[in-house]
TrEMBL record:
<dbReference type="GO" id="GO:0007154">
    <property type="term" value="P:cell communication"/>
</dbReference>
<dbReference type="Pfam" id="PF03160">
    <property type="entry name" value="Calx-beta"/>
</dbReference>
<keyword id="KW-0677">Repeat</keyword>
<keyword id="KW-0732">Signal</keyword>
<feature type="domain" description="Calx-beta">
    <location>
        <begin position="19"/>
        <end position="63"/>
    </location>
</feature>
<dbReference type="InterPro" id="IPR003644">
    <property type="entry name" value="Calx_beta"/>
</dbReference>
<dbReference type="GO" id="GO:0016020">
    <property type="term" value="C:membrane"/>
</dbReference>
<protein>
    <recommendedName>
        <fullName>Calx-beta domain-containing protein</fullName>
    </recommendedName>
</protein>
<keyword id="KW-0106">Calcium</keyword>
<feature type="domain" description="Calx-beta">
    <location>
        <begin position="131"/>
        <end position="200"/>
    </location>
</feature>
<dbReference type="InterPro" id="IPR038081">
    <property type="entry name" value="CalX-like_sf"/>
</dbReference>
Length: 417
């Protein structure tokens, strides 16, 4: 007996012959009684729980061969669990793929991420693996497909999540696993499981996880943010400033805030007051004080390079729009942002990020209080905030706002225009 079956598929010890025919296992021959001209042979198959596909075998008797086919009755059904609600800083969303029974042959499956409100920018790398009993073994994902080794019934699939600092509301996606060779009951329809990426500090309605949903900043007098000098410990005389970036990412309008970082500036000095941090970026010219005098004109060329008096500085220039590793930006969680700058290329520096330290913080009136106006009863109405009031939030639309009054008198009217 041969072909695609094995000793595990056929019970040779239970062979059954009709008409008195017997099998002499010692001699390997059939013994047929006198006058018997025909007989049947029954070969029991082993009913296991493994998918093997249809298998063939052959019997050779006195040079004559007949074949048989074992029809497999253990089709594989795929099931997919996991996903659920995960925090954006969870690194990945985890799914578990289960095969209803093991397969004796490798099984090729297709993986597909189906975006709901997510897109490619929300994800990193997807990985797959199984546990051999002693260790986790990676399964390569090639062209969106994995090959599950024979015998494996559980596969761990991790869809990598990009942890950015942008509040995006809850975002949903699905993972679909399908099989195109009709070896499973699911086939090309496949199985799916969904996941929700949360970055609002809530998981399942309870506090937890990443929170990019920062409270809106309400500026009552039209002055938004102060740029505060904290400290410097550089051996170089650095030039520091800010510039604007348009919607296409083009830089313009550079402004020097510190002409020489070693000039003895006092800590907590307010370097600038900015109406908004929208489209504001920062630059540092390392040891550029001598080549950037007080009356120097700074600009950008068409290639986005910073120029001093029309020439590119010979000293290194670091721009925050380049996602430069020289800038370490820290959200201090109280509305303040600390920027720590390394003035030597990281590969050659001590990487302490204290060569220049500045803080961006809302001005006192930008905290939602501190603006005052006086109304005399009987006179014309007055504004309770400046005409330049600015409300900044990290998502496009503010859906709810609350105004509270103290010492409110009857018949006081409030108008919103």
């Amino acid at each position: 007996m041969a072909d695609t079956s094995s000793d595990n598929d056929i019970d040779l010890a239970a062979l059954d012959f009709s008409n008195g025919v017997t099998y002499n296992a010692n001699l390997g021959v059939l013994e047929v009684p006198k006058d018997v001209s025909s007989f049947t042979i029954e070969i029991p198959t082993v009913d296991d729980n493994r998918y093997e596909g249809d298998e063939t075998f052959g019997i050779v008797i006195d040079g004559q061969t007949v074949t048989g086919t074992i029809i497999d009755n253990d089709p594989i059904t795929l099931s997919l669990a996991g996903g659920g609600e995960v925090s954006e800083d969870a690194v990945y969303a985890e799914f578990t793929l289960e095969l209803s029974n093991p397969s004796d042959v490798p099984l090729t499956l297709q993986l597909q991420r189906v975006d709901g409100t997510t897109d490619d920018n929300d994800f990193t790398t997807t990985t797959a693996s199984y546990n051999s009993g002693t260790e986790d073994v990676d399964i390569p994902i090639i062209g969106g497909e994995i090959v599950v080794p024979a015998g494996v019934t559980d596969v761990d699939i991790r869809v990598g999540i990009n942890d950015d600092d942008q509040y995006e509301l809850d975002e949903t996606f699905e993972l679909k696993v399908s099989e195109s060779a009709a070896l499973t009951t699911n086939g090309v329809t496949g199985v799916t499981a969904s996941a929700t990426i949360s970055d609002d500090g809530q998981i399942g309605g309870n506090p937890g996880g990443d929170n990019d949903n920062q409270a809106p900043t309400i500026d009552l007098d039209g002055e938004d943010f102060e740029v505060i000098f904290e400290s410097q410990s550089a051996g170089q005389s650095n030039v520091f400033g800010y510039y604007m970036v348009d919607d296409q990412g083009n830089p313009s309008d550079p402004v020097v805030l510190i002409q020489d970082s070693k000039s003895g500036i006092s800590s907590q000095t307010v370097l600038a007051e900015l109406d908004s941090l929208d489209n504001v970026e920062f630059f540092l010219i390392a040891d550029g004080a001598d080549s950037t005098p007080d009356d120097a004109t700074l600009s950008f060329n068409n290639q986005g390079e910073l120029l001093v008096n029309g020439q590119a500085p010979t000293e290194p220039v670091f721009l925050s729009t380049d996602n430069s590793e020289q800038f370490n930006v820290i959200d201090k969680g109280n509305g303040e942002t600390e920027i720590r700058i390394e003035d030597i290329v990281l590969g050659n520096s001590d990487q302490d990020f204290n060569d220049l330290v500045v803080t961006l913080r809302p001005s006192a009136s930008s905290q939602g209080d501190g603006y005052q106006n006086t109304f005399t009863e009987g006179d014309s109405p007055v504004a309770i905030v400046d005409e330049d009031i600015n409300i900044q939030d990290d998502i496009d639309t503010i859906t709810r706002a609350e105004i509270k009054f103290t010492n409110l008198k009857p018949m006081t009217l409030l108008g919103l225009i």
